[in-house]
Amino acid sequence: MDKKQEIAKTAQVKRALQGTVRKVIDECSVTVVVEKVFPNPLYKRLMKKKKTYLVNVPKGMAVSAGAVVSIKECRPMSKSKRWIIVSEQKKE
Questions:
Q1: Model confidence over 27-67: pLDDT tens digits?
Q2: What are phi and psi of 75, to 5 degrees?
């Protein structure tokens, strides 16, 4: 495989995350909270870090607050929306 083809192939990899819908802004936008658990490098205690993403909801999909969803990186939809909902797992 050529070096340029290899770089192009790795550039197309999209990140996928799983999180909880915190707030429904309108029918096409929601905020999703993704929680990451990792050990502290020095003390080895488990720590939690939360990050909020503004996510686009595809047409025909209805999502409510508290739902667990899978999101995937996509092209920029607006100034701050760069993620889209792929599927809804369950409701908490």
A1: 899 999 999 999 999 999 999 999 999 999 999 888 999 99
A2: -65, 160
Instruction: For domain 16-91, say whether CATH 2.40.50.1000 is its number.
Output: yes
Asked if 70 and 17 touch (Cβ cutoff 8 Å), the reply is yes
**Alpha-carbon distance 33 to 69, whole Å?**
10
Query: What are the residue boundaries of the structural domains of the chain, listed by start?
Result: 16-91
Residue 82 three-state SS: coil
Please say if the pLDDT value at position 9 is more than 80. Answer: no
Can you list the positions of beta strands (E) in 1-58? 16-26, 29-39, 46-56
